[in-house]
């Protein structure tokens, strides 16, 4: 089967990279020497995979049977392929102690992929991924920025984030409607954030859902909470609070309850 005969499936978010320089730059963004298992999500026709297999034995996860046939025929018969929907896959049986995830992720489910990665954060030390530009910016934004939001806080609680480079839509076939950005996430030293994680998540969500309001009006607080909490924090808006501020706020709110 040639690339030309391949039947592109829009429903699987198939936009294949065709610029070799960019493909190589992505492949070169991870460290192959630290004994981590390398997992590629969505290999497609193997643009990245062909570089990975020169340096390691990656596990590749692909939903499209036709793409898998193509890879086995054109890349190698011995690939370690899992034919599955990444979002439905039980990662516990696949992840080793230390794992690196890499991929040019399908745009339609890229945020869901990211949240699934977060569920396994203690085993995933690095992520190098291509996302829609706006999504990448949201993940990596810092307090004070209009783009700083729920995703930024929930990811940055556990990962250091870095924008690697932008990729213009001309570098794909078929050409997507959006621009893309490759980012790198590196696990920080926080094993577990120092507060009740469920309350933390719900607080972050509540605060940003009413992001124009001051925290005192955006989140549900009772009188006792209001007395305990530093006035400065209450008069700020969500986008001004750091991960640390959200952790402190969570602890102030939960202190009385435990
Ligand atoms: N890495 C390739 C292809 C990127 S396109 C390249 O850069 O050229 C995204 C790929 O993810 C496609 O191959 C698509 O079939 C696959 N994909 C889409 N949804 C998926 C899912 N839920 N689980 C696993 N793979 C998926």
Description:
The protein has two domains: 185 residues, Vaccinia Virus protein VP39 (Rossmann fold); 61 residues, Helicase, Ruva Protein, domain 3. The chain is 34% helix and 19% strand. The strands form two sheets. A seven-stranded mixed β-sheet has the order 4-3-2-5-6-9-7, with helices on both faces. Helix 4 links the parallel strand 5 and strand 6. Helix 7 packs across helix 11. The chain is elongated. The mean pLDDT is 94. The structure holds S-adenosyl-L-homocysteine (SAH). The site of S-adenosyl-L-homocysteine (SAH) has 23 residues, from strand 1 and strand 3.
Which geometry do the CA atoms define?
elongated
Q: State the helicity in percent bands.
A: 25-40%
Number of strands: 9
Query: Which homologous superfamily in CATH is the superfamily of the largest domain?
Result: Vaccinia Virus protein VP39
Structural key phrases:
258 residues, two-stranded antiparallel sheet, Helicase, Ruva Protein, domain 3, binds S-adenosyl-L-homocysteine, seven-stranded mixed β-sheet, single chain, alpha/beta, 11 helices, Rossmann fold
């Amino acid at each position: 089967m040639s690339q030309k005969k391949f039947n592109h499936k829009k429903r699987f978010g198939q936009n294949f990279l065709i610029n070799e320089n960019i493909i190589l730059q992505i492949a070169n963004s991870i460290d192959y020497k630290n004994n981590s298992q390398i997992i590629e999500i969505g290999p497609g026709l193997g643009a990245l995979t062909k570089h990975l297999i020169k340096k390691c034995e990656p596990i590749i996860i692909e939903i499209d049977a036709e793409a898998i046939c193509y890879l086995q025929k054109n890349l190698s018969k011995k690939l370690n392929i899992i034919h599955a929907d990444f979002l439905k896959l039980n990662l516990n049986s696949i992840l080793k102690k230390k794992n690196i995830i890499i991929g040019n992720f399908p745009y339609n489910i890229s945020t869901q992929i990211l949240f699934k990665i977060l569920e396994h954060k203690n085993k995933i030390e690095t992520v190098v991924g291509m996302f829609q530009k706006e999504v990448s910016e949201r993940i990596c934004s810092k307090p004070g920025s209009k783009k700083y939001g729920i995703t930024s806080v929930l990811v940055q609680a556990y990962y250091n984030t870095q924008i690697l480079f932008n990729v213009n839509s001309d570098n794909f076939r078929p050409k997507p409607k959006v621009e893309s950005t490759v980012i790198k996430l590196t696990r920080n030293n926080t094993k577990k954030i120092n507060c009740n994680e469920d309350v933390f998540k719900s607080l972050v969500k509540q605060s940003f859902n009413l992001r124009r309001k001051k925290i005192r009006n955006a989140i549900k607080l009772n009188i006792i909470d209001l007395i305990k909490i530093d006035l400065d924090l209450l008069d700020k808006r969500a986008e001004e609070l750091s991960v640390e501020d959200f952790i402190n706020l969570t602890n102030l709110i939960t202190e009385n309850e435990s």
